[in-house]
Amino acid sequence: MWTREQAAMFFRDVIKTEPDFSRLSQSVLQGYTCAVANEMEPERVQELAKVMKRKNVKLGADQLSCLVKMVMLRGIPKDLDSYPNDLLLFLRPSDYAATGSCKQYFANVGKASLDLLQRESSERRQLLLEALACLKIPGTQVNKENAKILGHLVCDLGGEYIRSSAGALLKELSQCESFLPDQEEAIRSVISSGNTTFGPPQAWSASTLNELTGLIPVLDHSIWQKVPKNVLTFWLKNFARDSRLSRAQLATIVEELLPSRQKRDVGCPGELRITETVLNNDLMPIYYTPEELRACLKNVSVTNDFLQILDYPFSNEQLAVLKEKLDETYPDGYPDSLLPKLGRLTSLITTKDISKWKITSADMLAALLELDLQNEQVGIWVCFPAQICFLVWELLV
Known about the structure:
Blueprint: H1 4-17, H2 26-29, H3 34-37, H4 42-54, H5 61-71, H6 93-96, H7 102-109, H8 122-134, H9 144-150, H10 159-164, H11 170-173, H12 181-193, H13 206-211, H14 221-224, H15 229-238, H16 247-257, H17 276-279, H18 290-297, H19 304-308, H20 316-329, H21 351-354, H22 362-369, E1 378-383, E2 389-394
Antiparallel strand pairs: 1-2
Helix pairs in contact: 15-16, 18-20
Keywords: Cell adhesion, Glycoprotein, Membrane, Signal
GO cellular component, one term: cell surface
InterPro entries: Mesothelin, Stereocilin-rel
């Protein structure tokens, strides 16, 4: 599969030689450039844009802003619904009026990738204000029907709307990428009240957690402690792997399930002995307190089976224990082969650790820079033999 940048390099040649755009793959179509569009007839650009919608091609804001100009060069198409929903973010409702109602316009905008417009930008604020006016929502209470129409626009509603609308907004809010502090507080307040279709946390099931997956990062201990532990365990075992939650977010649930056994200085309990089967179970974190994990790791060697657990949803305290194990095993610095496998442990790496690293090949450096960190913003330190360190911040979307 091509990246957008790679596809852009040969996009002109493909467009010139391919009469039927529907034969082009999603990977190729994402290479659309304004320069190529300017060389095409407007009708061909419109045809191209329609194919992009059918193939669910994701374009960037710069690509969409010039695509919409080409599509509308000879007036607004009457079949505007046949074009990518993301394109509508760069129109105004008045532009759409000739081809449909404002309600239909905002229903399509609600399905668009709203994050193409910067959060709290004037464009996004104006979209929300016009949507509320179109739906004749004078106050701060939004019903389920209007919430469904607003779609992703719900993500920009303030805390007062979330509280006033009770649970009517939760389904749409669960699709949001992030929240502001007042939104998070309002979501917790509504969920804690129990006056939603999900009921009180005490009555939740694994399917409830599935429906609320997008809101899980917002929930705090006051809510988690009310959810039955067997429900949390069942959800982790059967559904967590398919969720879009990061390992760090899953770790917050794991912390709620950690055994509450008292600290003790004895060795590893027999029933908690770490075997190959245990190492291959990604729910391993829920069975050990940090103290038990430390005791049970003493006789475990750092093999490939051990290294794979670094990607499990351990709590921060448990991660610190794992780092202790690695530090004891490699007192003179981690080997090259281990560095790309550190996962969430990178957040615990210190400059003292880094000073011991010796990156001996370009391939290893490339591997470090390409670490997939589950959409978490994590500092990754890369050191050369001369101990010149660079902090690389990556936010993977």
